[in-house]
Amino acid sequence: NIENILKELEKAIEYGDESPASYVSVCRSRIWMGARLALSRKSFQPHWRIDVKFMDDVGKAEGAVDSGGPKREFFTLVLDYLHGSELFVGPENSKFISYCSS
C-alpha cells in the first residue's frame, strides 16, 4: 500500500549538503513538462536531495544557487499546475482527484 511505500522511501532518503543530488533544470513557463522530464530520467533518484535550477525560455540558467528558494518555488509551481489541471475536479476550495483524468 502507499503508506508502506512512503515509509520505505523515507528510510532511504539521504540528508545533508554532502548527500548525492538529483538535478532539475526547468523553465517556469513549461513547469510541468520540465518536471515530468526530470522525474523520468534514469539518473533521477527520489531518495536523493533535489537541486533545482531555473532556466529562461532560451535555455540560459538564471544563476540562482539552490539554498532552498528555487526548490520551494519549483514544488509550489508544480503543485499549482496540478491543482489547476484536469487531475483535480470540484469547486476551488474543495477539489478531489478525478478518476477519469486525460
UniProtKB/TrEMBL annotation:
Keyword Transferase listed: yes
PROSITE patterns named in the record: HECT
Membrane-crossing residue ranges in chain numbering: none
GO MF, one annotated term: ubiquitin-protein transferase activity
Domain HECT: 40-82
Electron transport found in the keyword field: no
UniProt keyword terms in alphabetical order: Transferase, Ubl conjugation pathway
Protein name per the record: HECT domain-containing protein
Organism: Nothobranchius furzeri (Turquoise killifish)
